[in-house]
Design goal:
Chain A is mainly α. Chain A has helices at residues 13-21, 24-32, 47-68, 76-85, 90-117, 126-148, 153-164, 173-181, 188-219, 238-263, 293-301, 311-327, 329-332, 344-364, 370-397, 407-417, and strands at residues 36-38, 235-237. By secondary structure, chain B is mainly alpha-helical. Chain B contains 9 helices and 4 strands. In chain B, helix 2 (58-70) crosses helix 8 (234-249). The chains are: A mainly alpha, B mainly alpha. Chain B: InterPro entries: Cyt_c-like_dom_sf, Cyt_c1.
Chain lengths: 432, 287
């Protein structure tokens, strides 16, 4: 797909026959075998592949779980327990699915941070980045609705709080909320539509993933230097080089995944969700799943009115804005240099951004009172400041370090200082 | 990548440490009118089912079942647990059948359209002591006793930073049984001076949501007779019932941990093989 030139040569009769009618093998060969990738990709680049596997894993476990699940407020909680107790390997499926959601978000956050660090969103990859943000939004909607399905206390009250956000909008707020709920409160119609959408959205994600990968294969992958591929020596073939490296990263990730599934399956969940939903008993603290906590902290950080915008609407706008701002990141960054490796100041602010995101996550799990609110406000200010102030300004005033002329030069400089033989690397593709 | 992970870890730890101290300062509270519960943290009990090779002690579960049957089941239902699953406690099919037959369950309607009661079968679930939640509440001072099927997973005292991070390494998942054990052994302490205990409730500094609860101390030394020679003490009772409730909430725990070990061994070996393959393939390419 990249560059429009194909190196696929069908050798057998049947391959030629298929290639003349539907060149699917050619597409696969060009995209996942011969496709050139920069030779200097590190393991941070393995997360795209990991995410694809996680999506498949979630869909497979989810489809089987749906065979045993009953989307009815009177049955849902017990049907999940039936899966845990009586369905063959049901406990495994359900723990894979619930922990899989957490792992999916862990991977997507690393993937996004990698993009921010190496400037992967910059031209000509703006659409690639935007498609990624759309996937993130779809993932969030899917995860939120999935968390409601077991019909525990946090399911119910989380749904009540989150759908309540929409009432902050004047005029259209209440109708939107009623449309989401299928009524005036979280109840059976809500559960039914959430189940329906929870089953639908993953396939929409899969669709956008296809576009995301397509856009990636048109522009080509970035790499830690941020320099575009210039010659054949800059790249290696996707298979076997990237496949085996991605596979190793994937297996390591699966070890982490399995560790949680088999030894800490309820670590990331909330105990209250093992209590059946009760519309008359509000839990002491309603907290979302960990992957929403930074956004939840920003929502609650707005405790003051801004002109005509009251604090509730302000909080909701801040929360939606924290995702929406990602869409324009390619145009907020004014730097001519892509990778943080050559941008000392950006690197510093980037790590502060990570620390800030983790801090916001922790604050999101705390009650909204006293010092916590104050820190959340600082955290929110830095989150937006990073995108709105630091990104545009830094690109104009920062003096980047000297860039190597090519990926090959960067790689050879590195290995030379490492005291290794650099000569063999001149033309990696010619070597067996 | 290594740098990124290290940076992440350092950034996270640094910020959270700073806030951990802020947190501690905030939680300094008035002894007479505490605002954060439980007042005291539960002690960590050494459970047989903890850790990567954890397994249930069947003798202990049988003792726990006896306590549930003789004491707890007077008020607490356990409607998700079927008699048939008691075979996992080491009972034979015939023993389970006999155990179930001690209970009466409602069935029907019969051919005449009448509901009737019959002896429970292994396929039946533990019958509930009250017909509905309202009846349970009415008989218990307005607070319906919670169902016990999942209680060991539905209760856990928040671990707080930095302990929840270490819990990943130590595989601490026993917050539920630790809490139940602490609650059962935590009655009988005198409340701090000046604390008002509402009438009809019982002070317990380990209770998760208030300073006192409606339940009276349910277990005393010597209350339940053990036939396996175990000490008939409150401490032993509390451990046994907590272990039993953990089993009731997570009956496949042993199977899960055993499967987990095989999966981990496979994945680690597989990772090694893939790594060797990766080294071979990349051997000629500087990167």
């Amino acid at each position: 797909m990249s560059g429009g030139h194909s190196s696929y040569t069908p050798s057998t009769g049947i391959e030629k026959w298929i290639d003349a009618r539907l060149p699917l093998p050619r597409l696969v060969y060009d995209s996942f075998v011969a496709y050139p990738v920069p030779r200097n990709l590190n393991y941070a680049y393995a997360f795209g592949g990991i995410l694809a596997i996680m999506l498949v894993s979630q869909i497979l476990t989810g489809v089987v779980l749906a065979m045993h699940y009953a989307a009815d407020t009177g049955l849902a909680f017990n049907s999940v327990e039936k899966i845990m107790r009586d369905v063959n390997s049901g406990w495994l499926l359900r723990y894979l699915h619930s922990n899989g959601a957490s792992m999916f978000f862990l991977a997507v956050y690393v993937h996004i941070f990698r993009g921010l660090y190496y400037g992967s969103y910059k031209a000509p990859r703006e659409l690639l980045w935007i498609l990624g943000v759309i996937i993130l939004l779809l993932m969030m909607a899917t995860a939120f609705m999935g968390y409601v399905l077991p019909w525990g206390q946090m399911s119910f009250w989380g749904a009540t709080v989150i759908t309540g956000f929409f009432t902050a909008f004047p005029i259209i707020g209440d109708p939107i909320q009623q449309l989401l709920l299928g009524g005036f409160a979280v109840d059976n119609p809500t559960l039914n539509r959430f189940f329906s959408l929870h089953y639908l959205l993953p396939f929409m994600i899969a669709g956008v993933v296809v576009l995301h990968v397509w856009a990636l294969h048109v522009a080509g992958q970035t790499n830690p230097t941020g320099i575009e591929v210039k010659s054949k020596t800059d790249t290696v073939a996707f298979t076997p080089y990237a496949t085996v490296k991605d596979a190793f990263g994937l297996v390591l990730f699966l070890i982490l995944f399995a560790y949680f599934v088999f030894y800490l399956p309820n670590f990331m969940g909330h105990p209250d969700n093992y209590i059946q939903a009760d519309s008359l008993k509000t839990p002491a603290h309603i907290v979302p799943e960990w992957y929403f906590l930074p956004f939840y902290a920003m929502l609650r950080a707005i405790t003051f009115n801004i002109g005509p915008i009251n604090s509730k609407l302000g909080g909701v706008l801040t929360m939606f804005g924290s995702i929406a701002i990602l869409f324009i990141v390619p145009w907020l960054d004014t730097s001519k240099v892509r990778s943080a490796v050559y941008r000392p100041w950006y690197k510093l602010f980037f790590w502060l951004f990570i620390a800030n995101a983790i801090m916001l996550g922790w604050l999101g799990s705390r009650p909204a009172e006293g010092l916590y609110t104050l820190f959340s406000q600082f955290g929110t200010a830095y989150y937006f400041g990073f995108f709105i102030v630091i990104m545009p300004l830094l690109g104009l005033i920062e003096t980047p370090r000297r860039l190597p002329n090519s990926i090959t030069e960067a790689v050879l400089a590195k290995t030379k200082s490492g005291g290794q033989l650099a000569g063999v690397a001149a033309a990696p593709e010619t070597r067996a | 990548m290594k740098k990124i992970l290290l940076g992440l870890a350092a950034a996270g730890l640094g910020t959270m440490l700073a806030f951990g101290t802020a947190n501690a300062a905030e939680e300094a509270h008035n002894a007479a009118e505490p605002t954060h519960f439980p007042i005291k943290e539960p002690a960590e009990v050494n459970w047989s089912f903890a850790g990567p090779f954890g397994h249930y002690d069947k003798q202990q579960l049988q003792r726990g079942l006896k306590i549930y049957k003789e004491v707890c089941s007077a008020c607490h239902s356990m409607h998700l647990v079927a008699f048939r699953s008691l075979e996992e406690l080491g009972y034979t099919e015939a023993q389970v059948k006999a155990f179930a037959a001690e209970y009466e369950v409602q069935d029907g309607p019969n051919a005449e359209g009448e509901m009737f009661t019959r002896k429970a079968l292994p396929s039946d679930y533990f019958p509930s002591p009250f017909p509905n939640a309202q009846a349970a509440a009415a008989a218990n001072n307005g607070a319906a006793p919670p169902d016990f099927s999942l209680i060991a997973k539905a209760r856990a005292v928040e671990r707080g930073f930095p302990r929840f991070v270490f819990d990943i390494a130590t595989q601490y998942q026993e917050g539920g049984p630790d809490y139940i054990h602490a609650l059962l052994t935590g009655f009988g302490e005198t409340p701090p001076e000046g604390m008002q205990i509402p009438e009809g409730t019982h002070y317990n500094p380990y209770f998760i949501s208030a300073k006192s609860l409606a339940m009276a101390p349910p277990l005393q030394d010597g209350q339940v007779t053990y036939d396996d020679g175990s000490p008939q003490t409150l401490s032993q009772y509390s451990q046994d019932i907590s272990a039993f409730l953990m089993w009731a909430a997570e009956p496949h725990l042993e199977e899960r941990k055993k499967t987990g070990f095989r999966v981990m061994v496979f994945l680690v070996l597989f990772a090694g093989l893939v790594y060797v393959a990766k080294r071979r393939i990349w051997a000629d390419v500087e990167h």
